[in-house]
Amino acid sequence: MSTETQTPEKKTAVPEKEVEFFAPGSQEDTISQGIEVGGGFSSGDLSMRRLLTMAAVSPEGSTDPVDIALKDSLTYQFRHGAPNVEVPPEDFDPPKGRRYSLARISNFKRTKFGPDLKMVIARGDLESVMNVAEVKREERTLLRKNAQMAGSRGFRCLGVATATVGEDGKLGPFQMEGFINVRPRGTGLSGEDLTPTSDDWVRLQVWSGGLRFLHWLNVFLIVTMSVTGFYIMNPFFGDTYFRGIEIGYLMGWMRFIHFTAAFTWIAVGVVRAFMAFTSKDRYLRWSTFWPFKKKEDFRYLRETLGAYLFLRKEGPLYVAHNPLQQLTYTGIYVIGAFQMLIGLALYALPHVSANPIWSFLATPNYLFGVPALRNFHAVIMFLFWAFVIAHIYLAFRADSTERNGGVSAMINGGVYLRRGSKPVDAPEV
Ligand code: HEM
């Protein structure tokens, strides 16, 4: 390493200690079985091929298994001849007293036809390389999340950062480039190990076919009623009388579709209520909608709330709905029941003389007035939309953070739990 090239470590006194990328002891196995390179993550503008090239920069004739594996993998990436990534030993600072090495290279191209750049490459433990590059919090989180995923497949992530050497020979600040995944051969999970029957994960069948059918029927009906209801409130497409054009029977069709979907939805509601009190399936019973059954339930609710507010790292584990979901879904059911009653009241008005049931259902019109009921009906629609947006966001978020497969569970019914977890609402798995 040339003397003009000041690196952060040279300024601070660090004990001279060799730090291995793989834990001591694993080295012999590593050498005998070799190292496997498995993709990586580019956080800047570098292609994965160039990132790999950077990571492979190592001293001439290096016998380090990681260096060998990286150089080997270049031959697969560059079919018409891999670039020379070997540097003279004096241009390479091994990871002494720190968890990364430094290599000086004078002809690195960031893009195929870009200029030859002089730069110093820091390569090694991801966290240490991120520190050198002074990576910002958001980028750190992104890198860590991706590293976590690679880690779950047995990979260690070799961080790569670069600093350009200026005309005057001075070293610029380090910039994070990403990481390359490496693992000792044979340690990874593959094929069957990654399937849900793996020892690490347990798949539980939670949601019955009937419930899933009702869920998607609800989605279809709510969208249909929202589009047609919105049209009744504000005919937002097609011609209108206001422009003096004959609109034909468009509004009639909208109302017909709205009422057909509405009565189907009422039937769905009745079936769901019936299931809540008669089903043998514990996850369909009314009790899964009510989180206050025993003393600890209040604590679980508080802890769940804390996790949602980012005050706690994790809330209690539930296979079905957590206490906040239970309360939200109960709330949505109650609001849905109100929507049905208001809709029925509006629908009943022209039929009051037909029979006493319609005249009873029409009562709210006399108590609140038709305009107020129509307004309530429209406001509840907007509440439903707010719920749908939050519901979809939280479902996808939980699926990606907890890895529980919650989104696909609404299609296939199964969720995943780590073996040994103790959910509140199911026996230990
Ligand atoms: C998610 C469910 C529902 C949504 C989003 C929804 C939405 C709407 C909206 C926005 C309107 C227009 C309100 C206005 O006039 O300003 C409307 C009208 C109406 N809805 Fe619904 N609705 C739903 C369920 C129901 C149900 C269950 C019924 C029961 C029969 C119903 C019956 C009616 C009736 C009778 C009208 C008045 C039609 C008219 O004035 O010509 N709706 N709906």
From TrEMBL:
Domain Cytochrome b561 bacterial/Ni-hydrogenase positions: 206-413
InterPro entries in alphabetical order: ATPase_P-typ_cyto_dom_N, Cyt_b561_bac/Ni-Hgenase, Di-haem_cyt_TM, Hydrogenase_cytochrome, Ni-dep_Hydgase_cyt-B
This protein's encoding gene: cybH
Annotated NCBIfam families: CytB-hydogenase
Any GO MF annotation of the entry: electron transfer activity
Its membrane topology: Multi-pass membrane protein
Gene Ontology cellular-component terms listed: plasma membrane
Protein name (record): Ni/Fe-hydrogenase, b-type cytochrome subunit
Origin organism lineage: Bacteria, Bacillati, Actinomycetota, Actinomycetes, Actinomycetales
Subcellular localization: Cell membrane
Entry annotated with the keyword DNA repair: no
